Amino acid sequence: MRVEFDRDTCIGMYQCVAEWDGFEKDLNDGKADLVDGEEREEDLFVVEVPDGEELDAKFAARVCPVDAIEVYDDDGEQVV
């Protein structure tokens, strides 16, 4: 499972940070950061979800008020 995070879309509500340790606050920019995320395109970060953290990653995506977080299963299908 992987998470894709569009940092440009993020508005810094930090609800994802409360749901999953895979996100952290960047108070300087007023946005969240995807921990250990690899920048695939400008402001699009991707990370593999560690085993056992799938549910937390899905919750983080679901609570994002601007849908800046997408979750994909191992087959590449979007699940959130």
Give a brief outline of the structure.
By secondary structure, this protein is α+β, with helices and mostly antiparallel strands.
Would you give an account of this structure?
The termini are close together. Helix content is 19%, strand content 32%. The strands form 2 sheets. Strands 4-5-1-6 form a 4-stranded antiparallel β-sheet, covered by helices on one side. Strands 2-3 form a two-stranded antiparallel sheet. It is built from 2 helices and 6 strands; from the N terminus they run E-H-E-E-E-E-H-E. The mean pLDDT is 98. It is globular. The chain has one domain (2-72): 2-Layer Sandwich (Alpha-Beta Plaits). With 80 residues, it is of the alpha+beta class.
The top level CATH class name: Alpha Beta
Derived from helix and strand composition plus strand pairing, the structural class reads: alpha+beta
Fraction of residues in helices?
10-25%
> What is the makeup of the main sheet?
4 strands, antiparallel
Domain tally: 1
Principal-axis shape equals globular
Radius of gyration: 11 Å
Low-pLDDT sequence parts: none
- Taken in chain order, the helices and strands follow as EHEEEEHE
Strand order of the largest sheet: 4-5-1-6
- Total strands: the figure is 6
> What's the tally of helices?
2
Strand content: 25-35%
Please state the second-level CATH architecture: 2-Layer Sandwich
CATH fold type? Alpha-Beta Plaits
The N- and C-terminal alpha carbons lie at a distance of 11 Å
Q: Averaging pLDDT over every residue, what do you get? A: 98
